[in-house]
Amino acid sequence: MRYEFRQKTFLLGKLSTVLGISALLLSGCGGSGGDSDTEYSLGLPAGLTIAMVDVNNLEYYSLDTTTEELTDLNALADESGDSAVQKLRLTDTSVLGSFVHWPDFRVVNDVEMLDGKYLLMKPDYVPSTTVLGGTEESPGNFVQLVHFHDTDLAAHSTDEFYGADACSQADQDAGTCSGKYYGLQRLNSFVTEQADLEIEIAEALPEDQTLCRAYIDPYQKFEHEQEESSGETQEEAHDHGALTHFALTDTGRMYFYQEGEAGLESIQGFVELDGVNRVADCSRTTIARASEDGVLVFIPDTQKLYLVDNHGADFHQHSVWNLAEILPEGTTADMAAILGEGAAHEHEE
C-alpha cells in the first residue's frame, strides 16, 4: 500500500528550542541498566510525538519518542519566524478545554494521505459534537488545529476558519467550496463516526462500567476501507484480522471488542491500569496508536502513560511511564495529544 506520510515526527528533534531528557522506565517487560555513567532510555515506542499542556501554568511541551527530546512549544513559537509555528503559543488559560484527535486520512490524486492532526478545544466544547469554524462575531469552539508542516509542528488559529462552515449550494454542487470547508466536513464526519462508536461500545460494556474513551486504530481502519473500496473479497481485504475496538472506562479498565455476527463481541477479559481508581475528566484522557500491536493511554489523574499491547498474546499492560520523569519539575500534564504511526516496542523474553 502506497502512503505519503506528512507526519515526520522523527525530525522534530532538529527544532531550535529543545530540552534533552532521560529517565528510567518505571515498569514493564524490558528496561535499561548500568552504572552511574549510563544514560537511561525512556523506552517509549518510537515514531510518536506527544504534545502536553499544563493548563494552570500555560506550559506546552512536545516529546519526540524517537529522539527522546522535549520541546518547549511556547518558547519555540516565540523564537520562530514562521507565523504557523508562532500560532502554537498559548496565552489564555481560560480557553483551554481538551484535545480532539483527528486522523485526517484521505485519497488525493490517487495518493493516500495520512495526516494526523489534533485540535485544542475550548472548555464549553461537548465531546463528539460538531466542530465549528464560526465567525468573527461568534468564534468557533476550538483554539488551534495542530499538525506537521513538513518537519515542524505548527498550528492554524480559529480565526483562519471564520466562515468556513458556509458554502453555497451552487459551489457544493460544483465542488468549488474552500479547502477549509471540505476540511471541516471531513473533521465532522470523523466526529460523527466517533460518536457512533462510543454509543456502540457503551452498549457492549458490563452494566457496572461507564465508558470514558472509545478507540479504533485509524491506520488499520483506513487500510480496511481502502481494501474494501478496491473490490477485493472479504478474505483478501481482511487478511490482517478484524479491527479491535478499545474501551477505557472511568474506573481505569480497558475492554477489547471485535465486530461479530450479532454486534460487538468481547475478545478477552479486561485490563486494569495501575493506580487508576476513578477518572475525573474523561475528555482529557487519550488513547492513541503505539504500534500495530497496541495503544498508548494517557490518564491525567495518575500522570502516567500506559502501553497496552498484545504482541501475539492477550492484551495486557506492558509498560508504564511517569510524566514527572519526563516533564520539567513542577509541570503537570492536564491533557496530551499523540501523533504518529508508532513503532513496535522491544520485547525481552
TrEMBL record:
Protein name according to UniProt: Lipoprotein
